[in-house]
Design a protein that fits this description.
Structural class: alpha+beta
Number of strands: 14
Mean pLDDT: 93
Radius of gyration: 20 Å
Low-confidence stretches: 1-17, 356-361
Strand content: 15-25%
Number of helices: 9
Distance between the termini: 27 Å
Shape: globular
Largest sheet: 7 strands, antiparallel
Strand order of the largest sheet: 3-2-1-14-13-12-11
Length: 361
């Protein structure tokens, strides 16, 4: 492993008093994990009932220029962005502009044959039978929105809608198209106007490698032990609704605070988003709309991770405990959800997950 990864970590002071947060222990844990996982840089926020108790940057946002991570550093979201796509859909439901029971072919007639029976709620909960991107998908090609829909419509369903759960990035790509067709606005513009601006999420936006983005981190991957830059993806594939956002831990803290209120969506909408999906068999799966659901020692858990272009992300919420841990990293091999859970357990040992040798997705 290259020596430059083991530079002294650059720490940024907290933005608020760290009440009941073991800062020294968190620092030591993060240092240890960064060394063992060879992570160039990451940012962490601990949020207590909507108030930041700790926000720090560790390591390097850009290895080539030796730029340190700080709380303002902007990372790519990966699938943490799905909760915002789901929120946009729920806003449209509240506005009676679409229904969760609408067949998706109402808005996507290109799939009239293959997508019969798929409802909006199926795409939100990954139960529509749509798949992930196929192995031969060309991420370096610029597609039009119409081309993406046609490409998706050509892929056979993996199962009958509502019968199983299987993670589907294509399903969320299609939700972005539906938002566009219902509102006449690109889904990112809809989110900017209806979520990001009202919450003062000043750096959150759709990815653009062409634009000048202050405090933008670089993404990395390990190849045979050597650090490499992220792989290039076409501009089109960096604007789809399956998770193509720039985020900072400070902006995600604002988002977390809003989830204790009805400032963006109503309580009933959040309840629906945080309810495990019921399959046709009557069994449930621990996923709602854009959120994974669970329980740690009787403590309710609402979370999601993300991975994209050399970045990993996680937001881990214990809403009944008023505790959220947010983690953004710039290495593809990082396990951000396990890291976030480890930090939560340092704050409250009752939140320590049972180590079954697996990490949450």
């Amino acid at each position: 492993m290259r020596a430059f990864l083991f530079v002294v970590l650059l720490l940024v002071p907290t933005v608020a008093a760290a009440q009941d947060v073991p800062v020294d222990r968190i620092d030591a844990y993060v240092r240890d994990q960064m060394a063992s996982q060879h992570i160039p840089g990451l940012a962490v926020a601990v949020v207590r009932k909507g108030t930041i108790a700790l926000a720090k940057g560790y390591g390097l946002a850009n290895v080539e220029h030796q730029v340190g991570v700080k709380p303002e550093t902007v990372f790519q979201s990966g699938s943490v962005g799905k909760q915002f796509t789901a929120t946009a859909v729920m806003l449209l439901v509240e506005q009676s502009r679409l229904s969760l029971e609408d067949p998706i072919t109402k808005y996507l007639p290109e799939g009239a044959t293959r997508w019969k029976g798929i409802r909006i709620r199926h795409l939100l909960s990954h139960t529509g039978g749509t798949t992930d991107y196929p192995e031969n998908f060309n991420f370096r090609r610029d597609y039009t929105e119409q081309e993406l829909v046609k490409r998706a419509a050509a892929i056979p369903l993996a199962f009958a809608p509502g019968t199983k759960w299987s993670y589907s990035n294509i399903g969320y790509l299609l939700l972005g198209v539906i938002i566009h067709r219902v509102t006449g606005e690109f889904y990112g513009d809809f989110l900017q106007k209806n979520v990001f601006e009202p919450l003062g999420m000043v750096t959150t936006r759709i990815i653009s490698e062409a634009d000048i983005v202050p405090n933008r981190a670089a993404g990395y991957r390990l190849v045979k032990g050597d650090l490499k830059n992220q792989e290039w993806v076409s501009p089109t594939l960096n604007t789809t609704a399956d998770g193509s956002l720039y985020l900072s831990v400070l902006d995600l803290a604002k988002w977390d605070a809003s989830l204790y209120t009805d400032r963006i969506v109503k309580a009933d909408s959040l309840k629906r988003m945080w309810t495990p999906v019921t399959l046709a068999s009557g069994s449930t799966h621990p996923y709602g709309f854009g959120w994974a659901l669970g329980d740690v020692g009787g403590h309710r858990l609402v979370e999601h991770g993300g991975a994209w272009q050399g970045f990993k992300s996680a937001i881990v919420r214990f809403p009944d405990d008023g505790l959220t841990v947010i983690l953004l990293a710039n290495l593809a091999q990082t396990d951000p959800t396990r890291l976030a859970h480890g930090i939560a357990a340092l704050i409250d040992p009752a939140l320590a997950p049972v180590d079954d040798g697996k990490s949450a997705k």
